[in-house]
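QA checklist item 7 of 12: single-chain prediction sanity check.
[x] sequence parsed
[x] length recorded as 123
[x] structure emitted
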Amino acid sequence: MARFALITIIMPVLFLTSCSAYDFASPSNGRIKAKDKQIFFFSDEENIDKETKYYDALLDIKQKYPKEVRQMKVYQTEQKNPLQNHTFPSLVVIDNNQVIVKINGFVKSKEEIVRPITKALSN
């Protein structure tokens, strides 16, 4: 009986208290509360070959903003995500509960990704 109480009461409490510092708002409003700018990458693992420009861009961005790229949240197509994004691939930067940059779908060059993302991270 004590083991059942441990599993049903204490384990969920421990799990919830060990969550990250990010406070996700209601998914229905598509807003996220984070203390710093946050990058989100939405990937389609079935079409990963079409995402090479995104990966190349992220490598360039990582050189100047390693912390932000290291803390980037990655979501696959089958995962529910706090932004309710349904376009893959996509890169989104959030600051003060606002989407400040969103790049999605096909791009001609990695510079179409690098320029707006680095500008958003530098402000």
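[x] summary fact logged: Confidence is low (pLDDT under 50) at residues 4-31.
[ ] second reviewer sign-off
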